[in-house]
Each structure stands twice: as structure tokens, then as C-alpha cells.
Automatic annotation (TrEMBL):
Main location: membrane
GO cellular component: plasma membrane
Natural source organism: Catenisphaera adipataccumulans
GO molecular function, one term: antiporter activity
Topology versus the membrane: Multi-pass membrane protein
TM annotation in the entry: 20-40, 52-76, 97-120, 140-158, 170-190, 196-217, 238-262, 282-307, 319-349, 369-394, 401-422
Descriptive protein name: Multidrug export protein MepA
CDD domains, sorted: MATE_MepA_like (cd13143)
Entries under Pfam families matching the protein: MatE
Family in the record: Belongs to the multi antimicrobial extrusion (MATE) (TC 2.A.66.1) family. MepA subfamily.
Xref: InterPro entries: MATE_fam, MATE_MepA-like, MATE_MepA_subfamily, MdtK-like
Localization, UniProt: Cell membrane
Keyword list, A-Z: Antibiotic resistance, Cell membrane, Membrane, Transmembrane, Transmembrane helix, Transport
Length: 464
């Protein structure tokens, strides 16, 4: 019990600001490493001076993000359920949830890898690959399909380990895997002259090592949770509890992938350089968005624990400090990215038309990036308290019901730039919707308290 309590001390005691920063900063560091990995792939491919390769990687990226989305499904869903269970002192239940996430993730990852490997070529065509980019896109997808299980495990447990208060440990798997990927990129892309195949191989190796880190962590008995098959269970609403929060969390990423596929398809009508430019502008936007995601993911276990322990005051103070911190950091990053957009874009593209469009698209999409921190903190707060329906509505709207129609409407109204303006429009409207929904859900903390009690009864916890 002493071991269990020591890892959870930051959730229970100490100042709110230090508790938030202790959980958020490692999560931000992990997301920055994800950012560096994403930028490195595009950067070193760009050094081949073949912008068709850049376009191909951008076309294939949304499909790879689907693997990450599945990791998010089990990671965020599991984290929400585990943190609330730990807050209520239900250790055995938390272990069963952790084991369920591991083995369900392995099964789903294997199925998706096989499907992607078999259908790589028709999928590449569906993504909008032209005759010049088809071969590159198919190659990248075929190789990356091998990383399915590893990507899911890595993305799942970088979240779940945070649920037991070990934010630095949770960061390390992502950090190690992505750092290795970045090191291997120039060797395999440029040194071995493997191009997109080298980028894909580096991705597979990085994800394998990241997953292995978390497996070793559990095998050595350092966790209060479990990945043992003997602890696997779908009873007591474990499956539904994980999926009810995990699906809305993953749906945002899945819809983001689908929306990118749709936008890339529309962009392809303006030429391969437009596709390459849009892909790079998405990378620029990612500089701000991944930091916002890191803050949201970092704060979720703390908020979930406070909710499970029915500590209203600490919950509210943690939330308010997180919103303030996220707003300041994302605003500063947005300003910096806007000022240095040309210098960022030129690192990835060589074609004059692609450079011009990349700068133009990036500055359009950055107009609302300063709102990302607020959006992701509120989203993860809803997930932390188990507000599954609210999370689902927001996820459906931001990258689906709001964004996708915006793509077609704005393109019809203002042409090519309309495809770039669709994201800022979706950002503003979805944030307004999120604030309204959050106020409705949390208007009376007594209802949250009642929901916590109801959750405890529904899950049929057993006292340890």
C-alpha cells in the first residue's frame, strides 16, 4: 500500500500549481517529441528534393494516425476509468482495466495491420495519390502496417501510466521511441537512400522500442497496475467503461484523419504541390496543437482522481490553473509560429509554388491556434469525469459535423484558400459548443458528486 500511495501523492497533496505542472510538463515533453518525430519525417524526406515524396508521406499520414487513434481509444478510456477507480481506492478494478486495454489493443492492432497490408494500393488511390505519388504512398503504408500493435501499445500506456501518478515514466516510452525514430530518419532516408521506405522503417522501429519500454516497465513489477492476461476481464462494465470515454477521445483523432483525407483529396485537384503545401501547413499547426493535447492529457488523471475522491475544491482549482497555463503557452507558440512561418515552411519544401502555398495555408490555419489549449483542457476534463455523451458530441462536431461541411462550403465560396479556412472555422464553432456543453454538464457539482456515487455503484466495486 505504501508503494501505491507514494505514486499517487501528487494527486492528493501539495499545491495545485505544482501538482498540475508535475503531471502536465512530462506530457508536454512527450508531445514535443511526437512533434519532432513528425517534423523530422517530413524534413528529411524534403532533403531528397523530391516534393512528390513529401506529398506521398502527407497522404499516408492520416492512415498511420488511425493506429495512434486506437491507442488513444484504450489509453484515454482506460486512464479515465483507472484514475477514478484509484481515487475511490479500488485497486483490483484498476488492474483489470489496465489488462483489458493491453490485450484488446493487441487484438485490434493485429487485425488493422493485416487489413492495411492487404489493401495498401487501393487505399493509396482512395487517399488521392496521383500517378507520381502512388508508388511512394503504397510503399509507406505497406511498411507502416507492421507497426500497428506497437503503436497502439505505446500510445495507450503513455496515458495509462500517468493514471497512477508516474508522469515522468509515462513520458519516457514516447520519448525513447520517437527519439530513436528521429535518429534513424537521416540514416535510412538519406544515408541508405531508401526515401519513404526509410521513413516508414524508422517509424516501425521507433514504435517497437516505445512499446517494449512499457512492457518491460510492467514485467519488472514497477507498476501498481497490471497487463497480465490472468487479470483480463470484460465484466463489471470494464469494456463499456473504457469504450464510452475512449471512443469519443479516439473519434476526434479518427475524424481528424478522415477530414485530412477529404481535404487532401480536394487539394489534389489543385496539383501535387498544393497537397505537399497543405501537409506542411498541418505540421506547422501541429506545433501548437500537440502542446495543447499534452496539457489536456497530462491534467486528465489528476482531474479524474479528484473526481473519484469527490474533492470538488482541488478539481476546480486544478482545472482553472490548467486553462490559464494552456492559454498562455498556446498563445505564445501561435505568435512565434506566425512570425516565423516562412522560415519553418522552407525547411520542408523546395518548389516555389509549394513554398508560397505552404506559407499562406499555415498563416490561415494559425489564426485560431491560440484557442487549442482551452479546447483540449475542457475536453479532457469532460473525459476525466466520465461525461461520455458530451465528449462524443464535441468529437463528432469538431472534425466531422462542423469541419467536413466547412471544407466543401468554403471551397465553393472562395476556392483553394477555403480548404485552409475550414479548420479555423471549425475551431471557433467547436470551442463555443464545448463551453456551452461543459457549463451544462458541470452547472451543479452536486450532480457530479451524484454521478460519482452512481459510477461507483454501477461498476460494482469491491473494497480492498
Amino acid at each position: 500500500m505504501k508503494k501505491e500511495q507514494s505514486s499517487l501523492d501528487t494527486f492528493v497533496s501539495g499545491s495545485v500549481s505544482s501538482a498540475v505542472l508535475k503531471n502536465v510538463l512530462p506530457a508536454i515533453a512527450a508531445m514535443i517529441m511526437v512533434l519532432i518525430y513528425n517534423l523530422a519525417d517530413t524534413f528529411f524526406i524534403g532533403q531528397t528534393n523530391n516534393d512528390y515524396m513529401v506529398a506521398a508521406v502527407n497522404l499516408a499520414t492520416p492512415v498511420f494516425l488511425l493506429f495512434m487513434s486506437l491507442g488513444t481509444l484504450f489509453g484515454m478510456g482506460g486512464t479515465s476509468l483507472i484514475s477514478r477507480a484509484l481515487g475511490a481506492g479500488k485497486m483490483e478494478y484498476a488492474k483489470k482495466v489496465s489488462s483489458f486495454c493491453m490485450w484488446a489493443g493487441i487484438f485490434i492492432g493485429a487485425v488493422c495491420s493485416i487489413l492495411l497490408l492487404v489493401f495498401a494500393e487501393p487505399l493509396s488511390i482512395l487517399l488521392g495519390a496521383s500517378s507520381e505519388t502512388l508508388g511512394y504512398t503504397k510503399t509507406y503504408l505497406s511498411i507502416v502496417s507492421l507497426s500497428g500493435i506497437f503503436s497502439i501499445i505505446s500510445n495507450c500506456y503513455t496515458n495509462i501510466v500517468r493514471a497512477e501518478g508516474k508522469s515522468t515514466t509515462a513520458m519516457m516510452g514516447t520519448l525513447i521511441g520517437n527519439l530513436l525514430n528521429v535518429i534513424l530518419d537521416p540514416i535510412m532516408i538519406l544515408g541508405f537512400n531508401w526515401g519513404v521506405a526509410g521513413a516508414a522503417i524508422a517509424t516501425v522501429i521507433g514504435n517497437f522500442v516505445g512499446a517494449l519500454y512499457y512492457l518491460i516497465y510492467f514485467w519488472r513489477g514497477h507498476s501498481i497496475l497490471s497487463i497480465k492476461l490472468s487479470d483480463f476481464s470484460m465484466k463489471d462494465k470494464i469494456c463499456s467503461g473504457v469504450l464510452s470515454i475512449g471512443i469519443p477521445a479516439a473519434l476526434g483523432n479518427i475524424l481528424m484523419s478522415i477530414s485530412q483525407i477529404i481535404t487532401n483529396s480536394r487539394m489534389s485537384g489543385y496539383g501535387d504541390m498544393a497537397v505537399a503545401a497543405y501537409g506542411v501547413s498541418a505540421k506547422v499547426l501541429m506545433i501548437v496543437s500537440l502542446v495543447g493535447i499534452g496539457i489536456g492529457q497530462g491534467i486528465q488523471p489528476l482531474l479524474g482522481y479528484c473526481f473519484g475522491a469527490r474533492n470538488k475544491e482541488r478539481f476546480q482549482k486544478s482545472l482553472h490553473f490548467s486553462i490559464f497555463f494552456a492559454f498562455i503557452l498556446c498563445t505564445a507558440l501561435t505568435v512565434l509560429c506566425y512570425i516565423f512561418t516562412p522560415q519553418i515552411v522552407i525547411a520542408f519544401l523546395t518548389n516555389e509554388k509549394a513554398l508560397s502555398l505552404g506559407t499562406q495555408f499555415s498563416r490561415i490555419m494559425l489564426t485560431t491556434a491560440w484557442l487549442f489549449g482551452i479546447f483540449y483542457v475542457l475536453m479532457n476534463a469532460l473525459q476525466a469525469i466520465g461525461a461520455a455523451s458530451a465528449s462524443l458530441i464535441i468529437s463528432l462536431c469538431r472534425q466531422g459535423l462542423i469541419y467536413i461541411p466547412s471544407v466543401f462550403i468554403l471551397e465553393a465560396l472562395i476556392g483553394l484558400n477555403g480548404l485552409a479556412w475550414a479548420q479555423p472555422v471549425a475551431d471557433v464553432l467547436s470551442l463555443v459548443l464545448e463551453v456551452i456543453i461543459y457549463k451544462v454538464v458541470t452547472s451543479n457539482y452536486r450532480k457530479l458528486k451524484a454521478a460519482s456515487g452512481s459510477l461507483e455503484r454501477d461498476l460494482n466495486y469491491e473494497k480492498q
